[in-house]
Amino acid sequence: MASVLSRHAPPGNLPELSEANKDKWSKDFISHWMQGEIDANPDVVSKDRTKLTQFFDATKTASDQRKPKAVTWNAFPNLLVDSYPGVELQNQIADSSRVVQDEYLEWSVSRGERKYSGDIHSVSFTCEGPEYWQFLASAQKPDFIKLMRSLNSGFDKEMDNRDFFLKDHVSGNEVYNPANPWNLLSTTGTIAHLIQPNNTLSAEIDIAAQATVIRKDDKGRTIEDKDDLIKCSKYGNRGRNSDPRVSNLVGRFFQGTDIIQIGAGINFFARKGASLTVADPVAIYIHDFDKSNFKFDINSTTDGQALNLQDIEEPDRVFQWQRGDITKNQGLRIKIEVPKDLKQKNKDGEPLLVSNIYDTLNKKHIRYGAQFARYFTMSVSAVAIPGKTAEAQPCYRTSAAAGEKAPCAEFDGFPHPGISGTPGSSRA
């Protein structure tokens, strides 16, 4: 039954925010972004964007949120697959920096004292956008600090609360630093939220919203190809797994499927006359993690040795879901670590490590967090209502004067050779 939401819930219905701050999150973040997209507000999106008539905010327009449709994509960075030969090299680069982890899933690996080459002790993955954490740190600082420490409990004794903040030398106030030392690197084993420039919740809303604009080429022909649409509308990156699929979100909406694969897309949906919003709770989620190919090798952590494979007897203790609800396809954070008190031990009777996990499909021990990333499926979901097909618009071209600095979110380069692409978002 269609109804108007009283407010947007926090991602995954996370519990930290007070009731008052849940209202603020809904109004000042999610609704602010959505209404900014609808109104083409230059404080929210780039200049000269089209006002949207086929995108809506579910706190203002009635919709049925009970059966949202999900688009899914693989979490391993597709730009690396396209740019570098060989799985081993791709895994090395994916683990080397969170800047290249651009499919809305980022991770950090702990290797103990041998920080760069040792056996893996733990890997933590997250898909939480930075905006929620920035708000939590500002509005509920004690809760933020408690959460940061509890999620990275193995490093709690090394943390100083001052590490999380910068000082504003004009006001003297502390300001949360998203790139703090406990959320910056891919080699510490600690992580809180996404930091890759394109991996933001607001950018994902932007991609979904801008994909509702019907486009035409210079000859007046309606553009339907997914890559041409991204190029024409200048949202997302054609080389990523995620952005073309988000823009192709509703390719099978009318067949009633629950999981939408790449197809005719949001733009197809809009051409059929429907209006769309991102399903509540608005977030990017871990939709699934396939653990079926993993076993323990009791003998070794090194490829080429004789194997002694055993089933992982307590998988829920090894693959530890920490945030969100994976049973609803709404996972937000997972830590992979073998508890020291696990009954299964190595051949010497010592605790097993993550590198004792063996991938039976690829016939490799786990040497990189990226090996796990290939088994994650990400998702964002949509809800549709009947609407009216808008007039097709020409390709987006900003009227900004030559030489004017581009909007900060129009990030189309990476500090790694061989990787480039179209702008990541239309946001200013």
How would you characterize this protein structure?
It is built from 11 helices and 17 strands. It has 428 residues and is of the alpha+beta class. It has one domain (1-128, 185-428). The two termini are 36 Å apart. Mean pLDDT is 87; it is low at 249-264 and 400-428. The longest helix has 21 residues, at 19-39. 23% of the residues lie in helices and 18% in strands. The strands form 5 sheets. Strands 1, 7, 8, 9 and 16 form a 5-stranded mixed beta sheet that branches. α1 packs parallel to α6 and α4 (130-139) packs across α5. Residues 1-20 are annotated as: Disordered.
Task: Describe this protein with a few key phrases.
single chain; four-stranded antiparallel sheet
Characterize this entry briefly.
Residues 1-20 are annotated as: Disordered. The protein is 23% helix and 18% strand.
Q: Radius of gyration from the CA trace? A: 22 Å
Number of helices: 11
Structural class based on helices, strands and sheet pairing: alpha+beta
Largest sheet: 5 strands, mixed
> Which ranges are low-confidence, i.e. pLDDT below 50, for 5 or more consecutive residues?
249-264, 400-428
The H/E string reads HEHHEEHHEEHEHHEHEEEEHEEEEHEE
Strand content: 15-25%
Query: Domains counted in the coordinates: how many?
Result: 1
Report the mean per-residue pLDDT as an integer: 87
**Tertiary shape:** globular
Distance separating the two termini: 36 Å
Could you tell me the number of beta strands? 17
Can you lay out the helices and strands and say which pair or pack?
Blueprint: H1 19-39, E1 69-74, H2 78-83, H3 87-96, E2 106-110, E3 122-126, H4 130-139, H5 141-151, E4 165-167, E5 174-176, H6 201-210, E6 215-216, H7 226-233, H8 242-247, E7 259-260, H9 265-271, E8 274-278, E9 285-289, E10 294-297, E11 309-310, H10 315-318, E12 319-325, E13 330-337, E14 357-359, E15 364-365, H11 369-373, E16 376-386, E17 393-394
Parallel strand pairs: 1-7, 6-17
Antiparallel strand pairs: 1-16, 2-3, 3-13, 4-5, 8-16, 9-16, 10-11, 10-14, 12-13, 14-15
Helix pairs in contact: 1-6, 4-5
Region (Disordered): 1-20
